[in-house]
Amino acid sequence: MPAPHTSSNGSGPGRVDDDAPLWQLMLDPRGRIGRATWWWCGVAVPLGLGVLLVALADVAQFDPRQSRHVVNLLLLWPALAVSIKRWHDRDQSGWWVLVVLLPLIGWLWALVANGLLRGTPGVNRHGPEPEEVAQARAQRLAVDGGS
After folding, report:
1. Rounded to two decimals, what is the model's pTM?
2. What is the rounded CA–CA span in Å between residue 52 and residue 50?
3. Pair 133, 34: CB distance under 8 Å
4. DSSP character for 13?
5. Is the model more confident about 139 or about 18?
6. Cβ count within 10 A of residue 129
7. Which of 69, 94, 98, 143 is placed for a possible disulfide with 84 were both Cys, Cβ 3.0 to 4.6 Å?
8. Please, are residues 99 and 105 in contact by the beta-carbon 8 Å criterion?
9. What separation, in Å, do the N-terminal and C-terminal C-alpha atoms of the chain show?
10. Residues whose CB is less than 8 angstroms from the CB of residue 26 and which lie 6 or more positions away in sequence, other chains included
11. What is the DSSP letter of 129?
């Protein structure tokens, strides 16, 4: 098993939190992230970057087909890294990211698993739960009186 990863904020092994730098969230596949971070860094940011880069390539009068291929290649690793961390949050292997290769059902499965289903509570083999989830749970317990 590889050595646990410690984030730049020093919050412990395996931790990749919302307060980690964006480049770390987008490029490092180690650790865990919650659903909100996945929607932001795994869907919204790559989609926005893709649209921006294609628009810039069109303005620069690059071949539209080639520019789209280049943009897709540039965004491939960040999309994989963010999705791997989300699978880790569900205590699954990062290899589950390959489920998207199944026609139609794979994308639907990945969307539901990464975007809608909760991660495992507490520490799992990929590290402690993401800070956003831990804080929400603590707030819920405080409101419920610890029950």
Report:
1. 0.77
2. 5
3. yes
4. B
5. 139
6. 23
7. 94
8. no
9. 36
10. 41, 45, 78, 81, 82
11. P
